[in-house]
Protein: Sodium:solute symporter family protein
Amino acid sequence: MLLTLVIVYLLVTIAIGLWAAKRVKNTADFAIAGRHLPLVMIVTTTFATWFGSETVLGIPAKFVQTGLNGVVEDPFGAGTCLILVGVFFAAKLYRMTLLTISDYYRERYGRVVEVVCSFIIILSYLGWVSAQVTALGLVFNLLSAGSISVPVGMVIGTVSILAYTLFGGMWSVAVTDFIQMIILVVGLSIIAVFASHMAGGADKVIHLATSKDMFRFLPEPKFHDVVFFLGAAITMMLGSIPQQDVFQRVMSAKNEFAATRGPVIGGISYILFAFVPMFLVTSALIIMPEQAAKLIAEDPQKVIPTLVMDKMPFVMQVIFFGALLSALKSTASATLLAPSVTFVENIWRQFFPRISDKQELRTMRISVLIFSVCVLAYAIALQGTPIYEMVSAAYQVTLVGAFVPLVFGLYWSRASTQGAIFAIVLGVLTWLVFLLTPAGEEFPAQLAGFVAGIVGMLVGSLGPQAIRNVHASHHKLVGVPEKA
Structure:
């Protein structure tokens, strides 16, 4: 019965998404909803995109093992990312009326940087979308009591999302996000209240978390702990900024006010509401202590679903899985669309110039389909990898390769194409060296790559000017006129 209701819910969201797809007439409608979304929909779509499998399953699994200190990356870093986008990036980018974030790299640095950053951004989505697909497979496996294997569940989930994203693009994503966010917030709030009563009150849950030192946020005052804490914090806080899904929400706004305020409100809401799954997993320690302890040792991602399936009545199960599917579908649909649009606009067009808008729209849809197949295969291949780790790894590559050229290009007039290339190459190479050698155990690879990227930008941009200044000084000293 529960599986049947879930399937009905999937069919309803597909129908809503296909209805919204009627508004898609051109590539701008498909990629950025024609820049028509009001503030409330910018808030809901930024919140819903961030609130995915890692928030409902990954964050509480990490929290119950390490406390708040272990989840600095997400939700704190992730939510702060949206706030930073709204305050420092949205207005500048919105005024440029671009279709993708990679268009900015072309306008500021040229074709080479555009293509390289596009590859980096597309690559980063594999981990994030795979995390959502993995969670969908897990949900169908649980709901069918094992009758549906995890890989088959992944296929079902991917097809259900693809059904409307393929046709409706950003319009379908925004409309379904709006509805799914309402279901998500209301559903998880009801579950939290019910779990609180089962545990003997919210005060007992909070007291247990306090007694286990789960609210400790700052690291120990040791160099190793501090640098790894900073590395984790900036991974999503900064690494998520040069992402097409974030940029799409900014550019989809109907005015600059919605573009700047929407991400800020969405980011704050995300950080606050992410505490609900953490509350649920802590309440499980009281409601089913032995079972929870066993699951934490084996697979902590299953603690909350098991709590709902084994200890709560049927109506609560319906509410929970409706909320969970809303979280997964909203994130997955957005993250399937973003890299596909980037590929067509910034890589495909390098080799096949635009002939007509209709043809480009068709190419974007084919790209969505192909990327979905790639993500599905990647997710199946990575079965067993923790969801939180999949999402974390996804943003390291954009942090070390794409963030520095973006922020320096917007806020430093002397940033040059050579500086951007130096930043990308030095940042990515340093990251890989630390990632693949024992050095990464002493210093976080993403922080090393980030610092190297800044050095690369400064050297690449200021170096040629410094050399010219030295030559000019030399010519003056020896009395040789400079060449025109």
Observations:
- The longest helix spans residues 150-198.
